[in-house]
Every structure is written in structure tokens, then in C-alpha cells.
Automatic annotation (TrEMBL):
<dbReference type="InterPro" id="IPR036291">
    <property type="entry name" value="NAD(P)-bd_dom_sf"/>
</dbReference>
<protein>
    <submittedName>
        <fullName>NAD-dependent epimerase</fullName>
    </submittedName>
</protein>
Length: 229
């Protein structure tokens, strides 16, 4: 069963008629969300999923932003942690997937790369936390890894789904400038932090994905795959 729409839901259409698996892709996706109604909606839908599918494997998408201290106090991150606890307390079989920054063009300006490309392409001014890093992973690579995790499922667990190497935000912007042939109009703010994400649970799958490229080279590949006309 597939619950939701948008980028993440589109990746898992092949599960929509499988009653043994519930792929919950209807959660709040904007990390800047503050509306209680948006959070209540996800909670209610998740609770209904628990009641109606007690014997199914639940696949839930959470966030790696919990590892970023500057993000931890955000309502979005606290909400995701609450949903994780709700699942752990009520579902017998679950796979909580904490996702890093997904790259895959779908018109959603809330994703970091879509945001940056839109700002740079349109010469719009924006603030940049110059000490920050972001961990980027391709949408199709998320699909591949989650499919493998479902296939190999043995016990309920929480898994980080991210690439091997986090990238400095200034290096990400530089590559987008090269890709778009436009200069970013930025205000540099002297804040931000490094990102460290434990990917040991999926390292075997990342070895298949990032055999020839990782880090900034991996990001270049993602730009070409998702944003080339």
C-alpha cells in the first residue's frame, strides 16, 4: 500500500497494491513547516495506518536533520521524532528511514537543490550559512536502497539513508554556478556546522551506487541526471 503523493510517493508506486507493506509517503516534507495543522494531519493519517494495517511492514520517511544541532529545535524535526516514537510504540514491524537531502527535480522549491537552482537561475538574493554542509542523495538511489532494505527486512529498525560524503554548502553553490553558468547572489552568514551521518547500515548498497564517484563528483552526476534539459 502506498500513502501519499509527490516525489517520495512517486518513487514507490510498485508497492501501491501490496497489502503486506505500507509505504507512508504522506508526511510533512517542508523542514520550515510550523503549522500545527500540517503536523496533526500527518499524525492522524499515521494513526489510521497503524489501526488499519496492524500486520503490515510500515516504511516511514523521517529526516537526518536530527543530527544537525541547528535544526534539532525546529518544529519539523521534533515532529518527525514524535512520529518515530509513535511508530515504535504501536507498530510491530517497521522500517524508519531517516533521509538526508534528496536530489530529484519535482518542482518542489522546498528541497535544497531546487531552492538553490531557482535562486541562482533567477539571480535572487539569498542567505548562505557559509560553514554549513549538506548530505545529498539521488531520488533513484533512495528508491534503490529502500527497496533493498524492504527485501532484506529481518527486524524493525531505524536506518539512515544518505550518501557517504557530506559537502560544504559553498562547494554545492559553486557547482550549481558552473552548471547554470550563472553567479549566485548571496549573503554569507558566519554560521553552520559539519554533518556526520552514520551510514553503516546501508554501506553495502552505497558501494554499489558510488563505486566510481562520491562527494562533489557524485553531486555533479546528480545535477546532470535530474536537471539537464
Amino acid at each position: 500500500m502506498l500513502i501519499g503523493k509527490g516525489l517520495m510517493a512517486n518513487l514507490f508506486q510498485n508497492y501501491k497494491n501490496d497489502s503486506s507493506i505500507v509505504v507512508f509517503a504522506s508526511g510533512v516534507s517542508n523542514s520550515n513547516e510550523t503549522s500545527p495543522s500540517a503536523f496533526f494531519r500527518e499524525r492522524n493519517l499515521l494513526e489510521d495506518s497503524i489501526i488499519n494495517n496492524p500486520n503490515s511492514l510500515l516504511v516511514y520517511f523521517s529526516t537526518c536533520s536530527i543530527y544537525n544541532t541547528s535544526m534539532l529545535s525546529k518544529p519539523y524535526v521534533q515532529h518527525k521524532l514524535d512520529m518515530e516514537n509513535l511508530i515504535k510504540d504501536n507498530f510491530s514491524k517497521y522500517l524508519i528511514c531517516r533521509i538526508s537531502n534528496v536530489v530529484g527535480f519535482n518542482g518542489n522549491s522546498n528541497t535544497i537543490i531546487n531552492f538553490l537552482i531557482e535562486k541562482i537561475t533567477n539571480n535572487q538574493n539569498f542567505d548562505v550559512w557559509k560553514n554549513a554542509q549538506r548530505n545529498l542523495i539521488g531520488a533513484d538511489d533512495v528508491k534503490y536502497i529502500v527497496h533493498k532494505l524492504i527485501r532484506d527486512f529481518k527486524e524493525s529498525k531505524t536506518v539512515n539513508i544518505a550518501s557517504k560524503t557530506s559537502i560544504d554548502i559553498l562547494d554545492i553553490i559553486k557547482q550549481i554556478e558552473i552548471f547554470t553558468n550563472k553567479k549566485a547572489n548571496t549573503n554569507l552568514v558566519d554560521i553552520g556546522e559539519k554533518v556526520n551521518i552514520d551510514i553503516r547500515d546501508i554501506e553495502i548498497y552505497l558501494d554499489e551506487i558510488e563505486t566510481r564517484t562520491n562527494g562533489i563528483e557524485y553531486f555533479k552526476t546528480l545535477l546532470n541526471n535530474y536537471y539537464s534539459v
